[in-house]
Amino acid sequence: MAVNTLSRITKAILAPALALGATVGFASAPASAAVWNTCDQYGSTNLNGYTLYNNIWGSGAGSQCTWANSATNWGVSANHPNTGGIKSYPNSTKAINKSITSLGSLTSDYNISVPSSGAFNASYDIWDTAHRYEIMLWVNKTGPVGAIGSWQEDVSLGGHSWGVYKGTNGSNEVFSFIRKSNSSAGTVDILPILKWIKDSKGWMGNETIGDVQFGYEITSSAGGLDFNTNNLTVSSS
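Request: output the structure for the sequence above.
Response:
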């Protein structure tokens, strides 16, 4: 369940100003030849137009480290306890800053390797610049996780078949598209999804799309699990 997603973004943005205490235990980063790694709670870096966040934002979290071989090849090692509630959303963020009608295209390619245990989803998280609307696209999920709000309908958009859920987290509207079956690689045509929300459903207006994120909402990964983003690119025009 995508709980308090606005606060996780706010915390990531404010991270440099925060004092990182001992409330989160940190594991060691992978021994790969990474160009960047961090085990800091809100550690982040900018690489080739993408911002990578470790982003341990939920309560009761364990240890987690994020590493990157490049802007588009990165991963996470996490050991979060088998308790309820999202612990983290390590992610890659690409700034778009264009209105829906001014976008000629907005697509993403993904290739991931995820565990067969634990509780998590691998998802896009798309925000308007005012943070009034959050569009989540779940391409993979495992364990007892679910979307905010209620089921609306099933649709085929952007090259995938989804179950659509609509709700609110108390801070913003949330539209969740849950892929009907798990996928580890593919292309998502995001713009038709945004236009469907705007034009076909009237759930939002001609919003300016701020960030397109992709990452892992991790509820539990007891014993230590690895989440590998073999390739993740976001393109717009």
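Residues 1-29 have pLDDT under 50 and may be disordered.
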